[in-house]
Specification:
The protein has 177 residues and is mainly α. The protein has seven helices and two strands. Strand 1 and strand 2 form a beta hairpin.
Length: 177
C-alpha cells in the first residue's frame, strides 16, 4: 500500500494537518510503515490534485496558519477500493539484518558490540512500543489492537531469536602457531 492510500485511511477518521498525519504514522503504524514529511506533503498535493482530498487554511493567532486536509467522497471510494485489493508480500528492510549479514569480517569485540547493539535496539523498541500501546489502546478498535499486539509479539520474538543465536554469531578466531 502506498503513502497516499494510508493518508486517505487516516483522513477517513477526520480532518488532519500534515503534522497530525505524521503523528498518526509514528504513533499507530510506524513499526511496520512509516513516512517522512518529505513523503507526506507531496502525497497530499497529489491527492488534492486528484480531487481525493480538500484543504482548508485555519487562521491562528500568534502562530502560523494551519492547513487541514479532509477526505472527499471520491477519496473515500478510492480508499475503499484500494483496501480491497490483494495483499502483497511484505518488503522487509532491516538495517540490523544487513549489518549481521556482513558481520563475519568483524573482530570478536566488534561481533559482541554488533549483537549487543541489536539486542539493545530491539529491547528499546519493545519497551517504547509497550508504553505507547498502553497509552493509546483504549482508543483502538480490535483491528488496530491486533496490529499493535502483532508488533509487540514480533519484537519479543526477535529478541528471543537474537538471544538464542548470539553465541553462534560470535566466533573466536582460530588459534594458529
Amino acid at each position: 500500500m502506498d503513502v497516499k492510500t494510508i493518508i486517505l485511511g487516516f483522513l477517513s477518521y477526520g480532518e488532519m494537518s500534515g503534522y497530525d498525519i505524521k503523528q498518526a504514522f509514528s504513533n499507530s503504524i510506524g513499526f511496520f510503515y512509516d513516512a517522512s514529511f518529505g513523503a507526506i506533503y507531496p502525497a497530499l498535493r497529489k491527492l488534492e490534485e486528484e480531487g481525493l482530498v480538500t484543504k482548508q487554511e485555519v487562521i491562528q493567532s500568534g502562530k502560523p496558519n494551519k492547513i487541514l486536509y479532509k477526505i472527499t467522497k471520491a477519496g473515500e471510494q478510492s480508499f475503499q477500493q484500494e483496501i480491497q485489493t490483494p495483499i502483497l508480500p511484505p518488503v522487509l528492510r532491516s538495517d540490523m539484518l544487513v549489518k549481521i549479514f556482513f558481520g563475519k569480517g568483524r573482530t570478536i569485540e566488534e561481533q559482541h558490540e554488533l549483537v549487543n547493539n541489536c539486542l539493545s535496539t530491539q529491547r528499546q523498541m519493545l519497551a517504547q512500543s509497550k508504553v505507547t500501546y498502553q497509552k493509546l489502546k483504549n482508543g483502538f478498535d480490535e483491528y488496530q489492537q491486533f496490529c499493535w499486539e502483532y508488533t509487540i509479539h514480533h519484537l519479543e520474538t526477535t529478541i528471543t531469536f537474537l538471544e538464542l543465536k548470539a553465541p553462534s554469531l560470535i566466533k573466536e578466531p582460530a588459534y594458529s602457531l
